[in-house]
Design brief:
Strand content: under 5%
Helix content: 40-55%
Order of helices and strands: HHHHHHH
Shape: globular
Number of domains: 1
Distance between the termini: 78 Å
Bound molecules: zinc ion
Radius of gyration: 22 Å
Number of helices: 7
């Protein structure tokens, strides 16, 4: 080997737009994005499921040899929180998007006046939760009542107030060198509890968005 080279792969041996099927043997790849078989909405779901799955696999790996994490696993706390923070952000944004546009045609909700574009381009989970609270019906007898919403929104608010977000889980300090709050006090993660809770929250939201009450409402089939 040329002594000036160190034998690393070309980038295109690692990431490529060319189909790796050419010799019909090489199955050593996974798909980043398949253009032809997914709607944008479905692609968002795949992104969320990927981030959730990655977080859960990391947590499972922490417990694969023992019942308790060891000090050698501490460096996984921020990646776990980052993956969950992003999965929650995408799920909440989809939720808000669906309900914002549903409210404009819905006889059971006040039409939303929130500034959807601004909320969609920021990472602020607290603001997204506020917006959701402002448009979801609070009456428990409403056809669109979101059961569990009080606990779920409180959890996400607390998550946000602990300064866990997509920035603080990737960087320790801002552009001026000031530490983010998350990095200013001793803090601890209980991986098993977090895993169960976030999975439950995401499932509850997806059940709500996917259940029949929204489309039944569009068809005028909800009881008045
Ligand atoms: Zn409706």
């Amino acid at each position: 080997m040329d002594s000036k080279k160190c034998g690393i792969n070309e980038f295109t041996d690692c990431v490529t737009n060319e189909t790796p099927y050419t010799n019909n043997q090489n199955k050593d790849f996974i798909v980043i994005y398949a253009v032809d078989n997914e709607t944008h909405a479905l692609h968002e779901e795949i992104i969320v499921s990927g981030y959730m799955d990655a977080a859960e696999r990391i947590i499972n790996s922490i417990y694969s040899d023992t019942n308790v994490p060891c000090a050698g696993d501490d460096h996984l706390a921020l990646p776990i929180l980052h993956l969950y923070s992003h999965a929650m952000e995408l799920t909440l944004k989809s939720f808000l998007y669906v309900m914002h546009f549903h409210s404009k045609l819905c006889p059971y909700m006040k039409s939303s006046s929130i500034k959807i574009e601004k909320l969609m381009t920021h990472h602020h989970l607290g603001n997204i939760v506020q917006a959701l609270k402002s448009i979801l019906p609070g009456e428990t007898n409403s056809a669109h009542y979101f059961a569990g919403s009080i606990e779920i929104f409180k959890f996400i608010d607390d998550f946000h107030k602990f300064n866990i977000d997509s920035i603080s889980t990737r960087y320790s300090s801002d552009k001026d060198g000031a530490f983010y709050q998350l990095h200013c006090a001793q803090s601890y993660l209980k991986p098993k509890n977090l895993k169960l809770t976030i999975r439950k929250i995401i499932n509850k939201i997806n059940e709500y968005i996917g259940s029949d009450h929204l489309s039944a409402c569009h068809r005028g089939e909800l009881p008045t």
